[in-house]
Amino acid sequence: MSDLREAAMSSKAWPFEEARRILKRYETKPPEKGYVLFETGYGPSGLPHIGTFGEVARTTMIRRAFELISDIPTRLICFSDDMDGMRKVPENVPNQNLLQANLQRPLTTVPDPFEQYESFGHHNNAMLRRFLDTFGFQYDFISATDFYKSGQFDEILLRCVEKYDDLMAIMLKSLRDERAQTYSIFLPIHPETGRVLYVPIKHVDAANGTITFDDDDGEEHTLPVTGGNVKLQWKPDFGARWAALGVDFEMYGKDHSTNTPIYDGICRALGARAPEHFTYELFLDDTGQKISKSRGNGLSIDEWLTYAASESLSYFMYQKPKTAKRLWWDVIPKAVDEYHQQLRAYVDQDAKARLANPVWHIHGGDVPESRMLVPFSMLLNLASAAGAENKDSMWGFIKRYAPDASPATNPDMDAAAGYAVRYYNDFVKPTKSFRAPTDQERAAMQDLAQRLRDYDGAVADEALQTLVFAVGKEHGFENLRDWFRALYEVLLGQSQGPRFGGFIALYGVTETAALIDRGLAGAL
Question: CATH number for the 2-283 domain, one of 1.10.3720.10, 3.30.470.20, 3.40.50.620, 3.40.50.300?
Fold first, then answer.
């Protein structure tokens, strides 16, 4: 372990770089609270999306890295700002009129449009926790509603009253003049309607811990800031939460980065040390637009898990967190195959290389063996050529390629076969577009089909790939990429495909010859 820790202290993997920054906070003495606190925040105004998962996955990777380089205990909190008023109705939920009638009410008092939970906030919190539990994250969940109403936030709220002028000064510098005229860090919750009010505050009484305001009808109210009667605006809430909990690390998207000085300033004004931050780039949909909970663009966690195992999503999250990434259906096969490539590489790596391998961070050092005998991309092409409707039909080809394999001994292979059939039928099959070959391509494919019928060599990827190369060269393809593209477009109905030698070995030599015949006859 000491050798591994020593390697971790110099590792350039980004989770270790972040972990070392956190460790520097406690160079002189350990935290008084007894642990280092990691936090992720979640706004449950809509159904959770993959970006939310990404925050927890990446924070967990940093937490694991920290636990390797330090003996200080750690804790991860997932904090839901479910006391926030619902400002708009999400487009991707039922009962829109019901939600419209409850605008500006705290999310935990808005009826659940799915009619499954106590409120819309409770529903979305349950969705989030189910998603996180699917991935085995170790975390403590905190609801803002419980945090405010139980009194756990009272001490900080009273300090906000005492430091009101200082906190307002921090906020007003960031606001336009018109907004500044009516702004307050406090949002009272109307004692009768239950709505979160965005109204000017007439008086702040530090001695009694109360605020006074007029509601939208001009009626004056005085409320204590404690006990869930008042909530903080979201920017002050960010910094106040850090101060209340003693947060040491939180990451958030690039769209928050300009607010970092505000969050830090609020936290420090309340007498606490600001945490370390990590700003990640945003996830984009297929058109390059930022994914959004309210719009429902981009992929959900359930959608990814319909087509691939959870580890592939964790792998996607590990890669280049400071680079904007397109998050759409076509990234799934690549993520699956690269994840298994890293698993296979891990076996022969030294300690330094292992700590730089994404799979160490995905599995916290307890890295499994890959039993994936065939790349996912190859399975998609097999499903295409075989017209597979279920994974059982795929196993007939897989067992011929790897006779000792079985669903029992290769469960990840078995799961991948099922995912591949599903992905093929939903995304590949509808977009397939076969074309007729040119005269040059037809002659080459006829030659290849005949050579395959006459073939008596080893049914191995490289030997068959060499055969395909030789045919392309002999038929005058100056750029062999054009030859392989022709095979894909004529036989598989797509412009890209697998190493064709590997495909032949998997699909079968005589079966590939017959596939070529059907392609040349226009029967595909």
Answer: 3.40.50.620
Q: What residue spans define the domains of the chain?
A: 2-283, 376-431, 439-520
User: Does residue 298 carry a pLDDT above 70?
Assistant: no
**Amino acid (1-letter code) at residue 101:** A
CA angle 226, 272, 66 (to 5 degrees): 115
Which CATH number does 439-520 carry?
A: 1.10.10.350
Q: How confident is the model at residue 328 (pLDDT cuts 50, 70, 90)?
A: confident
| Alpha-carbon span 38 to 337, nearest angstrom | 31
Burial class of 436 by CB neighbour count within 10 A (0 to 12, 13 to 18, 19+):
exposed
Sheet holding 249-253, edge to edge: 140-143, 74-80, 36-42, 249-253, 276-280
Q: Using DSSP bridges, classify how beta strands 201-205 and 210-214 pair: parallel, antiparallel or unpaired.
A: antiparallel
Task: Indicate the SS3 state at residue 408.
Answer: coil
- Give residues with Cβ within 8 angstroms of 219, minimum separation 6: none
Q: How many other CB atoms are found less than 10 A from the CB of residue 101?
A: 12
Q: What is the pLDDT of residue 506?
A: 93
Which ranges of 71-201 would DSSP assign to H, the alpha helix? 96-100, 120-134, 144-149, 154-162, 164-172, 177-182
Tokens of 121: 């906030």
In the chain, the amino acid numbered 523 is A
Pairing mode, if any, of strands 230-232 and 220-224? unpaired
Q: What is the DSSP letter of 253?
A: E
Known binding-site residue numbers: 293
- Packed helices 509-520 and 500-507: angle between N→C axes, nearest 10 degrees: 110
Please tell me the pTM assigned to this model.
0.90
| C-alpha 258, offset from chain centre | 23
Closest CA to 55 of 252, 259, 294, 257: 252
Cβ of 208: how many Cβ atoms within 10 Å? 11
Would you list which residues are annotated within the binding site for ATP? 293
| CA gap 413, 395 in Å, rounded | 9
If DSSP codes are grouped into helix, strand and coil, which group holds residue 196?
strand
- The pairing of strands 36-42 and 74-80 is parallel
Residue 306 CA to residue 152 CA, distance in Å, equals 40
- Across the range 290-314, mean pLDDT stands at 79
- Token look-up 């992929």 returns 299
The pair of three-digit structure tokens given for residue 67, joined into one six-digit string: 């636990």
Range list of H helices, 402-438: 411-423
- DSSP readout, 461-493? HHHHHHHHHHHHHHTT-SSHHHHHHHHIIIIIS
HEC-encoded secondary structure of 252-294:
EEHHHHHHHHHHHHHHHHCCCCCCEEEEECCEECCCCCECCCC
pLDDT band at 47 (very low <50, low <70, confident <90, very high): low
What does the angle CA 173 – CA 179 – CA 180 come to, to the nearest 5 degrees? 45
Of 475, 399, 401, the C-alpha closest to 443 is 475
Residue written as token pair 């055969």? 467
- Residues 6+ away with beta carbon under 8 Å from 109: 102, 119, 121, 194
